[in-house]
Amino acid sequence: MAPTDESGQAAQQPPASGTTPPARPPVGGAGAIGRMPRWLPRAMVLALALVAAFQLGSWAFHQLTGLLINIVIAFFLALAIEPAVSWMASRGMRRGLATFIVFIGVMIVSAGFVTLLGSVLADQIIKLIEGFPGYLDSVINWINTHFKTDLKRVDIQEGLLRSDWLRNYVQNSATGVLDVSAQVIGGLFQLLTIALFSFYFAADGPRLRRAICSVLPPARQAEVLRAWEIAVNKTGGYIYSRGLMALISGVAHFVLLQALDVPYAPVLAVWVGLVSQFIPTIGTYLAGALPMLIAFTVDPWYALWVLVFVVIYQQFENYVLQPKLTSKTVDIHPAVAFGSVIAGTALLGAVGALIAIPAIATLQAFLGAYVKRYDVTDDPRVHGHRRGGEGPALLTRARGLWARRPGAERPRGEGSGKSSS
Question: Rounded to two decimals, what is the model's pTM?
Answer without folding.
Answer: 0.60
